[in-house]
Amino acid sequence: MRPVLYTVTSAKREMASTMTITLEPPRQVGIGQTGAAEPGAAQVGIAQTGVAQPGAAEPGAAQGLVPIAPGQFNMLWSWGVGEAPISASQSGLDGALVHTVRDVGGVTKALCAKQPGDVVGVRGPFGRGWDIDTARGQDLIVVGGGIGLAPLRPVVHTILASRSDFGRVALVVGARSAAELLFRSELDCWWRDRAITVRTIVDRPSRDWHGSIGIVTNELPRLEIDPGRTVVMVCGPEVMMRFVALNLIERGVAPEAIQVSLERNMQCAVGQCGHCQLAGYFLCRDGPVLTWEVARPLLEVREL
Ligand SMILES: Cc1cc2nc3c(=O)[nH]c(=O)nc-3n(C[C@H](O)[C@H](O)[C@H](O)COP(=O)(O)OP(=O)(O)OC[C@H]3O[C@@H](n4cnc5c(N)ncnc54)[C@H](O)[C@@H]3O)c2cc1C
Ligand code: FES
After folding, report:
1. What Rg value do the Cα atoms of the chain yield, rounded?
2. Which residues sit with their C-beta closer than 6 Å to ligand 1?
3. pLDDT tens digit sequence for 69-105
4. Cα–Cα distance between 65 and 74 in angstroms, integer?
5. Domains in the chain, ordered, with CATH?
6. Residue 244's CB: how many other CB atoms inside 10 A?
7. Cα separation, 199 vs 221, whole angstroms
């Protein structure tokens, strides 16, 4: 199962250790044309994981993978270094992929160093993402901590694109400091627009920080909740997701209405190697998004 070679078209620094890269798919080369991005790049057969079918497009058209849904991930591969699972931080684009990567080790460092024109191998999309449809007609609370906001950003984009499909929507974002708030200018826009409620909270405030101080769970009591019609989506450190879930369950939200995105080391990403296995679940295939009803017992097993 080989990666499709995408070309980096933009690399935006979000903060010291985090970059957002935009990737464009290879273009099919027609008869008499030359100039595929890399040898073998135009059509690499990963049919079972969703590569666009060869032959469907006109010469010169993009030959990328099938579109990625909010909460799904791709395996991004940096030549000579390795692969890492990275969620889409934007979706619904015409062929392009957008991923936001925090540099924590070998592969993510290499991905964060990519510049326009560089090539990144992509396998995917993989896994089950956010079940946004269950939130239609309901209130929605979206909670992101640190880099956990990246997979939730396409959820916010989806809501804003069809705002009237949802009831009250609150986005709660936590970070260690204001400088580490991801997508800060976009958060400011969403806050100003008031189409959704946006609350940010940091636990190490600078002098010029006028917002809330603490951890995301401190912010939850400030939200008005109708528990019987509330859907929750949470992504961030596991301990944060646990406390958010427990806090909202205490307020009457059903465990099956709370969706969390779990992270484990991944290798094959297609349910074959067992690296991401938690009890009977392969997170690459059955997750990464699970309801809290399903996730909670799995996390308890791991800690025994
Ligand atoms: C489904 C999924 C979606 C993800 N989405 C994103 C994303 O959108 N943006 C992003 O920046 N990162 C994301 N990650 C995390 C990312 O995959 C890891 O940070 C990356 O694999 C680390 O690889 P590395 O070679 O850079 O670091 P390594 O050298 O492998 O590891 C560096 C450190 O990170 C720890 N680590 C490695 N992998 C993970 C992991 N999966 N979870 C927790 N700790 C880990 C290691 O134990 C080590 O301490 C996601 C992970 C999963 C499973
Ligand atoms: S990564 Fe191989 S089974 Fe999930």
Report:
1. 20
2. 73, 84-87, 100-102, 104-108, 147, 150-151, 263-266, 288
3. 999 999 999 999 999 999 999 987 888 999 999 999 9
4. 10
5. 4-126 (2.40.30.10), 132-302 (3.40.50.80)
6. 27
7. 12
